[in-house]
Amino acid sequence: MSTEFRSAETSEKMANDLESLRTNLKLIESEASSSPAIRQKPSVGGETSELSSKLTASTDSATINDIAPINPNDTFRLSFNQLLIESFPNGISPNLSSDINMLTRSYANATGRELTDDVTDIVAELESIGYKNEDKIYFLSEASVIKLTDLIKNSRNSGNRLLFFESFYTTNHDIMQDLKISSPLHLKAAITKLFVNKYSLSKAYFLTADNVTVESEIKRCFNDSVTLSIQNLADRLPYIPVKEIECAISKIKHVFLVGADIYAHINKVTFDEEECQDICSFVKKTVDAIGFISFSSLNVTSNEKLNPDLTSSSIKKMIYERYLSDKYSNRGNIVYLREVKYNSHNFIEDYCLIRKSITFDELHRLELEFSEFYHNFALRIADNCMVRINSCIFVAENEIQFDIAATDKAISFFMRKDVI
Q1: What is the spatial distance between Cα 85 and Cα 138, in angstroms, rounded to a whole number?
Q2: Are strands 334-337 and 293-294 parallel, antiparallel or unpaired?
């Protein structure tokens, strides 16, 4: 046998493997094919490989078909896989003719046969036995499968209900190098091939428990706590990266930011029912009158006393969610009827029209309720529907006892129209 593709220290082992492969090929010649990629495939009835027994013991309830890359009774593929591992420890590029030629020579040296005599579609067979990462196909030995399986089992037994590919790879970096796994994406490709029937996989992680997500793990932490910081959550969920916690918690409907990186779950908060009902009545009365109400108008003194660790603004948001969200919509600080389309210009204009007078400072505060930035658009709205009688006050047009239109026309002869 040529030593071009095998090291000297593995030659004895390979000789045994190749002898097994030759024996299998003799069996193949006498049986019909059951695979579109392989012309003939033997079935060794009543025998269970060492891989089968080891994997069954290693993965508790997992069966060999859950995790093994190859059926343990498929002697041709087991032998072919061993040949691939020895010849291509760092993967094979099926699109490179040099790699395919090297495989063909290795197979001929091992068996004395042409690869195409036994495999009709080489690339399809490689993909069936191995797993693809980028432009290469990689192959796992029995020992590698067992080692990776044990890693996952040990992590699961430590309480890790989901595993992120990146952190799992980093934590076990040395072992990953031994397994010829070069990156988190490479690890994901291997796990996808091996455990597709056992674990649910997402883009960034895979599950070791049923119906678990980052969001559900965060919510679980609030079972015995009213408030938790990001650091508290990171300490309780060490298997979830902090950046993933920060991203996920902002999307959880009933979890609210109540301080600097501190969050509370609405179901753990105590509400003063009497005050909340008063707020509901006040909101209805105000929205019926002017079309909207601002959170700043709500009095939550009693609820603040019951929840000293929460900010006033967070309590108001929670009261809205618990008592008002079924009937009203919320945008920023503004609450309005669900059937009404949000339009800040119309809200401010309607508000100005029901007022006999309004000051410049009131307009400024009103605008800040709709936007944290002050652009003077409330001032311009008031100028269009009210009359400015001095530098600080606008009044309703029906409060003026002279011909407004004639006065405006006279003023226009002396000043630009865009001057308020």
Answers
A1: 8
A2: antiparallel
281 pLDDT tier (thresholds 50, 70, 90): very high
Q: Is the pLDDT of residue 110 over 80?
A: yes
Q: Six-digit token pair at 383?
A: 């100028």
Q: What is the 3-state secondary structure (H, E, C) of the chain?
A: CCCCCCCHHHHHHHHHHHHHHHHHHHHHHCCCCCCCCECCCCCCCCCCCHHHHHHHHHCCCCCHHHHCCCCCCCHHHHHHHHHHHHHCCCCECCCCHHHHHHHHHHHHHHHCCCHHHHECCHHHHHHHHCEEECCEEECCCHHHHHHHHHHHHHHHHCCCCEEEHHHHHHHCHHHHHHCCCCCHHHHHHHHHHHHCCCCCECCCEEECCCCCCHHHHHHHHHHHCCEEEHHHHHHHCCCCCHHHHHHHHCCCCCEEEEECCEEEEHHHCCCCHHHHHHHHHHHHHHHHHHCCEEHHHCCCHHHHHHCCCCCHHHHHHHHHHHHHCCCEEEECCEEEECCCCCCHHHHHHHHHHCCCEEEHHHHHHHHHHHCCCCCCHHHHHHHHHEEECCCCEEEEHHHCCCCHHHHHHHHHCCCCCCCC
Q: Could you tell me which residues are beta bridge partners of residue 335?
A: 293, 330
Q: Which residues pair with 354 in a beta bridge?
A: none
User: How many residues can be counted in the chain?
Assistant: 420
pLDDT one-digit tens code per residue, 306-342: 999 899 999 999 999 999 999 999 888 889 998 888 7
Q: Is the pLDDT of residue 35 over 90?
A: no
Distance CA 399, CA 23 (A): 107
Can you give the pTM of this predicted structure? 0.58
Mean pLDDT along residues 368-374: 68
User: Closest by alpha carbon to 51, among 136, 137, 117, 141?
Assistant: 141
Work out the pLDDT band at 274, boundaries 50, 70, 90: very high
CB atoms closer than 10 angstroms to residue 311: 16
27 has a pLDDT exceeding 60: no
Confidence (pLDDT) at 340? 84
Do 37 and 119 contact (CB within 8 A), yes or no?
A: yes
Listed range (147-151, 315-319, 400-404) with the worst mean pLDDT: 400-404
Residue 121 in contact with residue 14, Cβ under 8 Å? no
